[in-house]
Amino acid sequence: MAKTKKSTKTPVQDFSKYTRWFWILFLGGILSGVLIFLLASWGVFGEMPDHTVLENPKTNLATEIISSDGKTLGKFYFDDNRTPVSYDDLPEHLVNALIATEDARYRSHSGIDAIGTLRAIAFLSTRGGASTITQQLAKKLFHGEGSKNTIGRLTQKIKEWIIAIRLERQYTKEEIIAQYFNIYDFLNNADGIRSAARIYFGKEPIDLDLKESAMLVGMFKNSSLYNPRRRPELVKERRNVVLAQMYKYEYITEAVKDSLQKTDLDLNYSPESHREGMATYFREYLRGFMKDWIKKNPKPDGTKWNINSDGLKIYTTIDSRMQQYAEDAVQQHMPRLQAEFFNQNTPKRNPTAPFLDLEEEEIDALMNRGMRQSERRRHMKYDLKKSDEEIKASFYKPTKMTVFAWKDGKASEIDTIMKPIDSMRYYKSFLRTGMMSMNPQTGHVKAWVGGINYRHFQYDMVKQGKRQVGSTFKPFVYTAAIDQLHYSPCDELPDTPFCIDAGKYGNPEEWCPKNSNGENDYGGTRTLKSALANSVNTITARLIDKVGPQTVVDLAKKLGIESEIPPVPSIALGTPDLSVYEMVGAYSTFANKGVYTKPVMVTSIEDKNGTILYQFKPETRDVLSVETTYVTLKLMEGVTQSGSGARLRGKGVDAYRVDYREIITGYPYDFTNPIAGKTGTTQNQSDGWFMGIVPNLVTGVWVGAEDRAAHFKTITYGQGAAMALPIWGVYMKSCYADEGLNISKEDFEEPADLSINVDCSKVDDDTMVIDDDSDDTPDDLDF
User: Fold this and answer.
1) Contact status, residue 656 vs residue 695, Cβ threshold 8 Å
2) Of 30, 275, 416, 689, which is the most exposed, with the fewest CB atoms less than 10 Å away?
3) Helix axis angle, 92-102 relative to 133-142, nearest 10°?
């Protein structure tokens, strides 16, 4: 019987349990991931921003100072020099460069790039990161630098994903791009794209060209590494990578890529700091203005505005073009004037240089006073707790320092070793200046230059500083006589020695002013127009005796002079200490037909959202009649026609001695339009002034040293016509050349019912030699 073959049956494996575990693990992983994301969104791994924070992310924004012609004059900030811009302010090639380099699929994802993420996981980030632009924005806005441990970094990454998705829901793609550009720190105080464009290339973001855009986008990888000022070659390489990426994604052609990769960076580095840039003195004045405004105007919730971080916008009256012309005029004139001052005040010529007429003990007292008032002493005494002996000794120890100098006609700095006491004397040798220009009808201040260099000379000589005004005060005396006594510019007074008795007007002793050329400068009579044009002291003295000093003081107060003026006869010759700001405001009344308009510097203030917080209201008052101011203007026209300001008509030259060689510079003014003006020179040539008026612009200029003992030896260079007038002339030449400014060249408008003769070529019966009997004239007249 044959054996039957035993059948073998392979048992079927039961995979159901593996399948079950696979799905358990798979679904568990998904649920765990969902749970982790839920926990993160609930804030278990750290606080998450809610929708209100997402709508208004917390970033520090600089306060922006904006000129009347829409230019940024400067900013107030601590660490963040950030001024946000909108997407429409970004050029297309800048946006394309960012997308091509940082997030090629930006337009198609919703905050998370799945392809990039999977690639990063698969290749462990060796072929590029997975962070999208939105994720990078989330990181910068809400938690900054990444954690250094793996778990912490993973939780931060999860939070970035969640925030990125929320951002994509909250904002458009364009708004996210704009925020990303605005948040980034490009180094060198270049916070955000607007500051970066201005600092590295001196232009607004919309004006950036392709290669400039590529350089800035290249800095996103690591701005500390790719610093254009320190590693230009490395930055150029990175810029070329960005251009290659733009070619790869077909934003530019190969020809464009190749041509731009060969070019240099072409930086136009323009640092933005509180001590540099345009209108530095004005900006510092504005800081004080804002400090007072903030005290009186809290936020709706009662807290105070922060000028350095709340992103305010301050709209000012300053015209950036006129401001630049004013600064250029100062920079053109002052180095040449200073060269002559140094030449006259070398130790060889003047052992007490830069001081004249002082004894050594007087100079020692002056320097000791300077030490007591110095920042060095304040720092050593209160910060370092040093004794007075240690502080004084430190002034006589040679120290490394950087000092200001005019070099090749430009403001510069020199590294040197000098005793601090010698540096003080060195700085006291420099002539300073103050200049302000204003529209008399609106009161809008158009230019403000408070000194020669804010970095080294921070005292503002427009509003802070007050100096004797010299003959620029005389028009106030003449105006009082015109207004009260109806005098004509053609009326005459004796040009002979004149005294006001002791006791009159409270004079302690007899006052007998002399003309500038002493005893030989007399003879016959002079018209008032000739007397003012040539600053004849005796005739001005006769006039103040006729109207009374108190009348002139009252007029000056109504013209906006706030400084104390004693009602004594000597004020007629300009003894009061006044500011450029006060003088320009007062002179503007003449051009505004007798209406005083308080100078205006700020027109409005807005918050970061554009809500108006402040709008100025003009402050005006009627002071003089239209006729009186017109006659005064015609009087002052004589100054520029035939008097001390005649060089504006091309009738004079300005001589300077540079490097011991005398040269004639001859500023080519050649103005032909009507100009009313007045020069001013104080005793010993310590202060030089010029006030210039055309119908829609009044400008005042002062020049002098910090101490009155430092001055020119003779009036050749020390008069207002040589010290201050050239700045006005250069400035006005630039203003007239810029036709867009519409600075008037027309004559001053004549009143319809003019009753006073102003044309001395047409002498009528009313023109007279004024009786010099002052006894019948009241001491003070009503204004």
Assistant:
1) no
2) 30
3) 90
